[in-house]
Inverse folding.
């Protein structure tokens, strides 16, 4: 009824037993950690009637405080769960259970964007069978495209999820002039770089930021400041980021495309996972794919599947055309 081997993407038809299996596991959690939690909800695809899903029960657990919720780790481990830390989502405790995998538990602060978004997405699709059907078609296509790569499968459906959340949660997306923190992750869920910037433009498909010269960049090994200005274009359903780099004099210094996950927005933060394959175009020169060595190393380190490697390389080839036809906006400070 439930259970999926590691590194397998397989969708099962909706099973009416899934709500009961959630209730049974929620009762176990309540007995083990109930004194520390505020709510337990069934989330994810198995919580949406009629939707095909990976046969893994997702449980969202609300707590008052992330740090204090560390007290849940030991009793969860006694229930057979493995603790995965934040696993790419700041201030989330992730637990997984079963071989093959049967349950995921996400412990979030009740006031957090993650808690709000999980519930809002579920409730919106429960009320919209037409969108449930569209989501099922997207999931099935991605399962065929990435049959052995859950990371790629999850990343590439994020655009649909985000568009639903924009309808379900008014004001989700920052507006022009708003401050925004950008976090760049590696494929092991490590945040390796972050900075503050300002939203310049936003529409249904994308968000654009502008950072002036001297912007402070934080990295795990230290800090540095940019010499010129950077305009960054992020898309909610496209697997890349495009940067316009300007020198201190305002002249265009180059275009860069990072093959990445689509952008995710939570509160006043934007998250992107960098897959370490890039395209560069210098003024007057041809666009070219770079960082092949880094990409090969990342594929080996993070276990990119063959189909995901091929996908990333195709995105890079498509980006050659993108940058060749790109019309930079020029340096206009906010």
């Amino acid at each position: 009824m439930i259970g999926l081997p590691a590194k397998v993407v397989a969708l099962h038809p909706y099973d009416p037993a899934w709500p009961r299996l959630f209730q049974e596991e929620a009762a176990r959690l309540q007995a083990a950690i109930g004194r520390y939690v505020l709510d337990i909800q069934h989330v994810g695809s198995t919580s949406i009637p009629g939707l095909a899903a990976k046969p893994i029960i997702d449980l969202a657990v609300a707590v008052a405080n992330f740090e204090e919720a560390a007290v849940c780790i030991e009793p969860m481990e006694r229930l057979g769960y493995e603790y995965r830390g934040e696993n790419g989502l700041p201030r989330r405790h992730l637990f997984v259970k079963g071989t093959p995998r049967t349950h995921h538990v996400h412990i979030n602060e009740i006031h957090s964007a993650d808690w709000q978004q999980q519930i809002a997405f579920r409730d919106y699709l429960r009320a919209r069978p037409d969108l449930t059907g569209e989501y099922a078609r997207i999931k099935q296509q991605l399962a065929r495209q990435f049959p052995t790569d859950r990371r790629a499968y999850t990343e590439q459906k994020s655009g649909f999820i985000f568009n639903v959340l924009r309808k379900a949660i008014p004001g989700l997306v920052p507006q022009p002039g708003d401050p925004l923190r950008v976090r760049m992750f590696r494929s092991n869920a490590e945040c390796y770089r972050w900075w503050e910037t300002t939203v310049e433009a936003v529409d249904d498909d994308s968000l654009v930021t502008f950072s002036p010269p001297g912007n402070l960049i934080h990295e795990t090994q230290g800090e540095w400041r940019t010499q010129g200005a950077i305009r960054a274009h992020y898309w909610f359903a496209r697997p890349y980021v495009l940067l316009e780099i300007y020198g201190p004099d305002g002249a265009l210094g180059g275009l860069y495309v990072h093959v990445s996950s689509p952008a995710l927005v939570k509160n006043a933060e934007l998250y992107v996972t960098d897959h370490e394959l890039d395209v560069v175009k210098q003024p007057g020169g041809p666009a070219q794919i770079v960082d092949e060595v880094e990409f090969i190393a990342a594929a080996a380190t993070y276990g990119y599947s063959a189909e995901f490697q091929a996908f990333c390389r195709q995105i890079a080839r498509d980006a050659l055309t993108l940058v060749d036809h790109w019309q930079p906006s020029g340096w206009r400070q906010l």
Q: What stands out?
A: The chain has a mean pLDDT of 95.
